[in-house]
Design goal:
about 240 residues, mainly alpha, 2 domains, 9 helices, 2 strands, globular
């Protein structure tokens, strides 16, 4: 929900999704080409600045979305610094720190490029771009249904939590945990029932095609794609220069 709200509220909401995708792909390619930690850090910083300063995505939203992948990245890097010892236990291996640092910075640069696309492109625009790239319709329909079920799940969870709170279901921490467990179990049943209802509605209408949306119009798409190619080319040039 936070990602979707940020994509609709950012300054780049009216920018062609092809332009944002080209810039993100250039950032990812540059992160894979760059070799030195300094260049990787600069690439990550440039992608972050493009999202925060260029698209005006709030810093709090950006950090909230990036918290989970950053936690996973930090844990992975820590585990890479621990190796089995000859005595049968585990030991800290600081000699691997430069290699792990390079991996972490490369992953951070790729993550910053992906977050820039996610936080600035609404789902309908992304689906339109994927359809133009001839992504299989079955995969696109599954994405649409999953996207819809997220909102259904959130609404059902909020309604159930409000009802439990009105009946003192969250009066203490033990009661709160019990109520959350009961609600989670009930949610699984509700989501299954609503998914079955959607399937029955589609079958009743003899639906055999694909889910369609009203396409958005981007009158300045050519200019925006040109600017994205220029900005992405600069990132790639920086990475190639570092590689050579």
């Amino acid at each position: 929900m936070r990602i979707d709200a940020a994509a609709y509220a950012c300054r780049w909401q009216g920018v062609a999704p092809s332009a944002k995708a080209l810039f993100a792909l250039a950032g990812i390619a540059a992160a894979w080409l760059a070799a030195s930690p300094v260049t990787l850090a600069v690439l990550a910083l440039l992608s972050m600045l493009a999202t925060l300063a260029g698209a005006r995505v709030p810093v709090r939203t950006y950090l909230a979305v990036a918290l989970a992948p950053l936690g996973f990245l930090s844990l992975s890097c820590l585990t890479m610094l621990v190796t089995p010892s000859a005595a049968g236990g585990w030991q800290w291996t600081p000699v691997l720190l430069p290699a792990v640092m390079q991996i972490a910075l490369r992953s951070l640069a790729v993550l910053a490029a992906v977050l820039g696309l996610m936080l600035t492109t609404p789902m309908p625009d992304l689906l339109l771009l994927l359809r133009r790239l001839h992504v299989p319709e079955l995969l696109l329909d599954m994405m649409v249904l999953s996207y819809r079920m997220l909102f259904v799940l959130r609404q059902a969870w909020d309604e159930g939590s409000t009802a439990q709170g009105a009946r003192l279901g969250h009066s203490g921490w033990r009661q709160s945990w019990r109520s959350m467990g009961l609600l989670a179990g009930q949610m699984a049943v509700q989501v299954w029932q609503r998914a079955s209802a959607l399937q029955m509605a589609a079958d009743a209408r003899a639906w055999q095609g694909s889910l369609r949306f009203l396409p958005a119009s981007f009158p300045d798409a050519r200019r925006q794609v040109g600017l994205a190619l220029l900005a992405g080319g600069l990132l790639l040039a920086l990475a190639v220069r570092d590689r050579l």
